[in-house]
Amino acid sequence: MLKLGGAVKISSQNREPYLSLISESDNLPRVLSEERLLLYSIGMDYQNFRGLIIRNDEPVPTPYNGDIIRVGPEYNYISNNDIARVNPHDSSIRVLFRAASETNSILLTERCNHYCLMCSQPPIDQDDSYLMEEAFRLIKMIPKNTKAIGFTGGEPTLYGQKFIDLISHTKNHLPATWLDVLSNGRAFQNEKFASDLASIKHESLSINIPLYSDDPDRHNYIVQAENAFDETVRGIINLKKHKVRVEIRIVIHKQSIKTLVSTCEFICRNLLFVDHVALMGLEITGFTRANLDKLWIDPFEYKDVLSEAIKTLDTYGMRSSVYNHQLCTVNSDVTHRYRRSISDWKNEYLEICNQCTRKQLCGGFFSSQIQFKHSSYIKPFVLDESIV
Amino acid sequence: MSKFRAPDHYQQSSKYSLLPFKFIKLDEAADDDTYITVNYAGEYLLVTRKNIFDLVNFNLVPSDPLFIKFKSRHFLYDKASTVSQDLLALKLRTKYSRLSDFTGLHMFVVSLRCEHSCPYCQVSRQSEDREAYDMTEEIADKSLDLVFKSPNRNIKIEFQGGEPLLNFEIIKYIVEKALQINDSEKRNLAFVIATNLALLSDEHLEFCSKYNIQISTSLDGPADLHNANRPRPGGDSYERAVKGIEMARSKLGHYQVSALMTTTERSLSRAKDIIDEYLKQDFNGIFLRPLSPYGFAIKTKNYDKYSTKQWMQFYAEGLDYIIELNKKGVPFREYYASTILSKIFTSNDPGYVDLMSPSGNGIAAIVYNYNGDVFASDESRMLAEMGINKFKLGNVLSNSYKEIFLSDNLLDPLEQSFALSCPMCTDCAFESYCGSDPVFHYAIDSDYIGHKSFSNFCFKNMEIFRILIKKLHKDDFTYRLLRSWGMPHA
């Protein structure tokens, strides 16, 4: 798992945090270089850059008046066109955008009106609107040829109009970039909010909304919020009424697996107009670790239920994906929906996986799964030598 | 104390309210206790008599798995979640949304003349008299004016007969004229010719290919059965049909050619043979149709020769065989079942005219007869051949679109054919899978609704619903197979 941020050594004339693009090349016109950080190595023409990222034990060049950010080998992945927040005040950096990644998620807030049993990003009830302000600036800096980005939280729609403004801003500054937004959808029960979002006409926007059960009580229990089911379902209806793309996301665990098939039937009967259904494996992080006894079920034990759920969605022509599972824990009849999905900075494999002939096709594990809990049935696919 | 609340915190309410639903014993004769309960949108559950008793007497509690099933399928709601009412409304709106499209299928009877003399045919004539039985350009023009007055974005023009190929000149005229009008109308315009294929020529196919015209033909079964059902000079109806299917597929494409069968007394013992014939001709499904009680079929007493019960047996045997075929890995389906299964498993009404509520007469399909008479359906013109003009809506030469579509002969039966408000249908568990057939009931009872206790339409459809529901719960394979038949995209 990549380390995206933390304490580093910074020397700077200023105290204010700022965002900066990172350049591997020293051969930039001054109008660009004075806004950027240079990934420095000996012999480079560094003078006109705003700051230098010095890796490992390389000496700091002199004379130089810009910022010096010294990082350890855990940041070796930093490369051209990445964007970092530099905070001289508390001597920290955070990499907010990595050009090499296909899944850059931008955290907009840690506040939330859900308190999900398995939340991977436990909500914190404090003003963190600086994240939103930062997102506006970040969006302007992200390379225009970026394929996809995501907004996540917390619950991004808690910002109300500001959220709508951000989507509009993103459409204008990244017109060719796919945008996934993780939201519980409840705010869209207000049809005006849904139609305001729709009126932006962002052509490649998807609002990804969790619906954990066809039983309202069970859904509300899983997200620990009363009325959540009704508000989410009304939100989905309003978004689709205004032709906004919606994906339904179901994290599979011991509480949701009991109604997984009936939930898929419910979606096909009632919400057939949504665009995609994602069935996702459990990440062992955040609240999940505290609630592990209530949540953990070995994927190998529910693989027939997963097959049945996919069959139902397939029958109704509903597009779907299975995320965050290992190939050896699912039946072969779901492989057409299987996605190698775990974010590149998160996925890892077990030692035993090195023998597996299908490792390249497999999403592997969240590092949290390797660390805390994973299926007991991990088994490498091997070539049958009698056939060879 | 945990900062997380327990499940029962979200499951406080034991009070619930009922949403509209209906129920019936699944198998009236059987000794078992299985009832089917169907909600407003057609979703069903199989339960026991006691389950229904508990439901309506408010004896169910939230922890009861049946409570959750009834709640999720919108038979009941409690105050913790009321969105079920919005969802039910949405499903109902979807189910009836086709109504606002209005008339899509426009049938042109371009000639009553035919070289076949099928005893079950209601309308055709053996005659050389073109003037008496062929559609003229004037009638065609006036009919086309009406076609494009329909608000439907999707317009299908079907050429009927008699044998339409006997008046191919008018088909050419209508197709080209319709396309010309459509230059400015911009509808999704499609054409189909319903023909016995006996007279099919390369010239016909050339034209069909140029304008992407589909072919719908008749195939009643293997040669002996087909030729006995469909006599023509030379006794070679089957040979010509099979050759025509091959020619048409080669020129137009495999899926541009479809076939329909008609059941006669001779067919009743031959369900497998008929299906095998469809397999042999490389069709991927069949519509096992009952004989309709119209025209010559009644006059020649063909209709009385076998009862609906016998036909049910024939249907059930055919359906069993088709399911067996699928179990053996031969994909094949029965289209009447597909129509019903679509209503069972989705909120999408497939728009099959004989199984719509309100009736599809006039508002889903309409017939322009060779002489300009306008009928609410193909069956309506057959009734007119028997002297019953109750469903004649007017004539293209003397009546306007408004007069035709606001005529009492159209509006009265439509108003009375909304099954949800028909006596007995309103209480029937199968109502949302069913439809109305005012023309049929008028033919039998001289009343648009008829008496459902004695209605063969009712008996036949309820039997089929029961057969299908029972099959659905026989085994997983059959459940999945039949469910997939109900899907529009499949």
Tell me what you see in this structure.
With 388 residues, chain A is an alpha/beta fold. Chain A is built from eleven helices and 17 strands. Chain A has an eight-stranded mixed beta sheet with strand order 1-8-7-3-4-5-6-2. Chain A has a seven-stranded parallel beta sheet with strand order 9-10-11-12-13-14-15, covered by helices on one side. With 490 residues, chain B is an alpha/beta fold. Chain B folds into three domains: 82 residues, no CATH class; 310 residues, Aldolase class I (TIM Barrel); 70 residues, no CATH class. Chain B has 19 helices and 15 strands. Chain B is globular, with a radius of gyration of 25 Å.
Keywords:
heterodimer; A: 388 residues; alpha/beta; Glucose Oxidase, domain 1; 2 domains; 11 helices; globular; B: 490 residues; 3 domains; eight-stranded mixed beta sheet; three-stranded antiparallel beta sheet
Helix % of chain A is 25-40%
Unreliable segments of 5+ consecutive residues of chain B = none
**Assigned CATH superfamily of the largest domain in chain B:** Aldolase class I
CATH architecture assignment of the largest domain in chain A: Alpha-Beta Barrel
Please tally the helical runs of chain A, counting DSSP H or I stretches of 4 or more residues. Answer: 11
Write down how many β-strands of chain A occur, each being a DSSP E stretch of 2 or more residues.
17
* Radius of gyration of chain A, in angstroms, nearest whole number: 23 Å
- The percent range for strand residues of chain B is 5-15%
CATH architecture of the largest domain in chain B: Alpha-Beta Barrel
